[in-house]
Amino acid sequence: QEQLVESGGGLVQPGGSLRLSCAASKLYFDYYAIGWFRQAPGKEREAVSCISSSDNIVYYIESVEGRFTVSRDNAKNTVYLQMNSLKPEDTADYYCAAHFACSRYPGDFSFWGQGTQVTVSS
Question: Taking 90 as the threshold, does the pLDDT of residue 54 lie above it?
Fold first, then answer.
């Protein structure tokens, strides 16, 4: 069964950085766009970023533009989300998901990881 596993979350002070990883197995990774989503307590899951299978399409939500960078290493079946200048409002569970094309809608994505928690607090 296709599997995505996130890692790299943790507790960080405001202004700090984290790099999340999304490792895929049993997936034709090269063919899939990978999206990053987050869900804060009591809030709906929202799209954060996405990278297409060929790297030529990426997007970020406005609130993370300029602070987060998504990249992928197809040789390692891994997508990364570099998060800099973190703010308390970035606190959430972060998930990666796979779909044939980038989309901002969680329902479009076929495969999901279990999530990794990010807490930004002093």
Answer: no
